[in-house]
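Let's practice the habit of predicting before peeking. Look at the sequence and jot down your guess about where helices and strands might fall. Then scroll down.
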Amino acid sequence: CYGVFAQFAPNENKFKEAEGFYLKQISLFKRANEPERLIIPYENTGIHYIKTKDFGKAKIYIDSAFALANSCHSFEDIYNIYHTYGEYHRETGNYKEAYDYLTKYYTIRDSLFDSDYKTQLKSITQLLEKEKSNLEIKVQKLESENLQKSKFYVQVILVIAVIGYLLIIGFLLLFFLFN
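Done guessing? Here is the structure:
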């Protein structure tokens, strides 16, 4: 809750209030002994200090977020923090470091997107293959039914032809017998 308040406070030029909200949020998560939940508040606090040009505090909080993300093996947080490091170094005028961090961020983000894309594509392909096999089974079933129907019709036609042939022979025999 404090994180939400903190994010809106700078929009109203209430940077001190925002700082208070961020620090209260960090304090609550520390007391709850949930280190993985501290990553984003630390990062957001670092971003706040970048906006207020307090680069010393910004670096401390960003470094803390990065260390926690590493210890929690939170890959998504790590790559987001690379973006924050990039912004930090851009604001401090260290453009080479900013470039390096932003390159890491975009490389990882794009590889994650590529990975998600491949996973989605694989899932869609599997569904397509399943649907294709279901359709093949239906086609085979319909072909089998049609073959059975056509065999039945052939048998009916043969029976009718045999009966007709026998009737013709019977009439011819009767004709010759009575003449």
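How did you do? The chain is about 85% helix and 0% strand.
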